[in-house]
Specification:
Number of helices: 4
CATH superfamily: SOS response associated peptidase-like
Low-confidence stretches: none
CATH class: Alpha Beta
Number of domains: 1
């Protein structure tokens, strides 16, 4: 699962995709306005509901293994969601300990799906089974798309789009429960704790 992430390195995106109206964030949460890339970068709400639903579903993740068989995502479009880190919580007894996953500030792109519901666009982050490097924290992780496969992902190709090299470079460290509050959006969210 991916329930929080960061996008601090907005300047890298601006240099490649042009001017965008987006402030760096240390704690993007479901329901927030985030960025997505299709033919250009644009803002979208992080919460997906299929167009046919009677009431909002507010889905934030979509499993890659069932993406093409779940009715909720049947008519969705594909997108890429820029990020430079994400949080996962590890269960230790009765406690849930937050960890920050990152690649030293490098921007990468999560696979995403999006669609419209009652005139409003929303998206979900596609997840996959965690690799060994991240599995000790959580059994799921975001599917990170390799830059060389952007076009295939966006066009709906079933090829293996995930960026194994980037994923293997991901590091993680424990952070404080400061990140648990989605209104906290500052560097303290990513500071390592012992």
């Amino acid at each position: 699962m991916c329930g929080r992430f960061t996008l601090r390195n907005v300047d890298t995106l601006k240099s490649k995709y042009g001017e965008i109206d987006f402030e760096p964030s240390y704690n993007l949460a479901p329901g927030n306005s985030i960025l997505m890339l299709t033919d250009q970068l644009k803002s979208i709400n992080w919460s997906f509901t299929p167009y046919w639903a009677d009431k909002p579903f507010n889905l934030i993740n979509a499993r890659s293994e069932t993406l093409n068989s779940k009715p909720s995502f049947e008519n969705s479009n594909r997108c890429l969601i820029p990020a430079d880190g994400w949080y996962e919580w590890k269960s230790e007894g009765d406690e849930k300990i937050p960890y920050f996953h990152h690649a030293d500030g490098d921007v990468f792109f999560f696979a995403g799906v999006y669609g419209g519901y009652r005139g409003k666009l929303g998206c979900a982050i596609v997840t996959m089974e965690a690799l060994e490097t991240t599995k000790e924290i959580h059994e799921r992780m975001p599917l990170i798309v390799a830059r060389s496969h952007f076009k295939e992902w966006l066009e709906g190709s079933e090829s293996n789009s995930f960026d194994e090299l980037m994923v293997k470079s991901i590091k993680h460290h424990r952070v404080s429960t400061h990140v648990n509050n989605p209104t906290n959006n500052d560097p303290k969210c990513i500071f390592p704790t012992s």
